[in-house]
Amino acid sequence: MSVYCGIACRRKSFWCYRLLSTYVTKTRYLFELKEDDDACKQAQQTGAFYLFHSLAPLLQTSAHRYLAPRHSLLELKGLLGKFGQDAQRIEDSVLIGCSEQHEAWFALDLGELERDWHFPVSCSRYKAQALLHWHHTHQFCSRSGQPTKKNMAGSKRVCPSNNIIYYPQVAPVVITLVSDGTRCLLVRQSSFPKGMYSALAGFCDIGESLEETVRREVAEEVGLEVESLQYSASQHWPFPNSSLMIACHATVKPGQTEIHVNLRELEAAAWFSHDEVATALRRKGPYTEQQNETFPFWLPPKLAIAHQLIKEWVEKQTRSSLPA
Ligand SMILES: NC(=O)C1=CN([C@@H]2O[C@H](COP(=O)(O)OP(=O)(O)OC[C@H]3O[C@@H](n4cnc5c(N)ncnc54)[C@H](O)[C@@H]3O)[C@@H](O)[C@H]2O)C=CC1
Ligand SMILES: [Mg+2]
């Protein structure tokens, strides 16, 4: 069992830790790197760099798997020289985490960041792509129009002319699986891949609580009134800009299940039975093979929180239908 103790003291501007768990010391170390440019620069000396090109991760194959190669600062300088880029580019790198031994990890994009998103394969890659993308799209101060300057870790940008600080933005989004007790409501937008249905989602308006957003989005998109709400889980979602997906289960008022689809927002919405959804969850294989008469719809992949939400609902329904 880890012993948690709040003893930490500042010595020569570095944190020193005693009796703190590995997780806490790691978190405090990352905090220090975000706050202290010199400490962050120092961490680059022994850190590892992951490279991207226009947000596409640089990968190499090893035993039929794709792996993201790590580069030391020295190797990175060599690579930059090879690509005809200045070593100054290292200043564009952003801190994305560290190991338990406090080896700091950085991400650097060597391209122009003009291309589309590439699906990340790990959580730290999610963070790297979202952060690199945010820096690329927040180069100027919206008040003065002057170029902003990132701190060493890339946790913020500052306008040198008026000291306005810009922090990476995350937009809260609710994703709700609405149920009428026996069926669940799935929707599709015209931008979804053909045949894919998902849970209903929507951005929080300014000033709203999550409960108010769920109520409004369900009413806006399918014309139903939510009666009860239960939080499930959350997920960072980097597409197209960073969102925090907050996943909930909701039920509609009894007897009020008639859907009125808002065609400005959705292409279709329908109630699906437990068996239909459970079958769709069990399906495997490439999505293109799934779109035929006997295969009317498919669900988002496992990495999307929508999938987890739908799976949770199916499991709950299965449990409640079993004899006591
Ligand atoms: N991880 C997952 O499982 C899922 C993630 N999503 C994500 O949820 C997000 C929201 O879902 P939608 O149904 O599209 O939202 P939505 O129902 O709020 O409609 C999108 C519209 O909201 C407006 N809007 C308000 N605030 C916005 C902001 N901060 N950024 C962008 N647009 C804003 C725009 O007019 C936009 O066209 C999408 O970005 C989508 O990628 C959606 C479903 C599943
Ligand atoms: Mg929506």
TrEMBL record:
<keyword id="KW-0809">Transit peptide</keyword>
<dbReference type="GO" id="GO:0005739">
    <property type="term" value="C:mitochondrion"/>
</dbReference>
<keyword id="KW-0460">Magnesium</keyword>
<dbReference type="GO" id="GO:0046872">
    <property type="term" value="F:metal ion binding"/>
</dbReference>
<dbReference type="Pfam" id="PF09297">
    <property type="entry name" value="Zn_ribbon_NUD"/>
</dbReference>
<keyword id="KW-0496">Mitochondrion</keyword>
<dbReference type="InterPro" id="IPR015375">
    <property type="entry name" value="NADH_PPase-like_N"/>
</dbReference>
<keyword id="KW-0521">NADP</keyword>
<comment type="similarity">
    <text>Belongs to the Nudix hydrolase family.</text>
</comment>
<keyword id="KW-0378">Hydrolase</keyword>
<keyword id="KW-0464">Manganese</keyword>
<keyword id="KW-0479">Metal-binding</keyword>
<dbReference type="InterPro" id="IPR000086">
    <property type="entry name" value="NUDIX_hydrolase_dom"/>
</dbReference>
<feature type="domain" description="Nudix hydrolase">
    <location>
        <begin position="168"/>
        <end position="295"/>
    </location>
</feature>
<comment type="function">
    <text>NAD(P)H pyrophosphatase that hydrolyzes NADH into NMNH and AMP, and NADPH into NMNH and 2',5'-ADP. Has a marked preference for the reduced pyridine nucleotides. Does not show activity toward NAD-capped RNAs; the NAD-cap is an atypical cap present at the 5'-end of some RNAs.</text>
</comment>
<dbReference type="InterPro" id="IPR049734">
    <property type="entry name" value="NudC-like_C"/>
</dbReference>
<dbReference type="Pfam" id="PF09296">
    <property type="entry name" value="NUDIX-like"/>
</dbReference>
<dbReference type="GO" id="GO:0016462">
    <property type="term" value="F:pyrophosphatase activity"/>
</dbReference>
<keyword id="KW-0520">NAD</keyword>
<dbReference type="Pfam" id="PF00293">
    <property type="entry name" value="NUDIX"/>
</dbReference>
<protein>
    <recommendedName>
        <fullName>NAD(P)H pyrophosphatase NUDT13, mitochondrial</fullName>
        <ecNumber>3.6.1.22</ecNumber>
    </recommendedName>
</protein>
<dbReference type="InterPro" id="IPR015376">
    <property type="entry name" value="Znr_NADH_PPase"/>
</dbReference>
<dbReference type="InterPro" id="IPR020084">
    <property type="entry name" value="NUDIX_hydrolase_CS"/>
</dbReference>
<dbReference type="InterPro" id="IPR015797">
    <property type="entry name" value="NUDIX_hydrolase-like_dom_sf"/>
</dbReference>
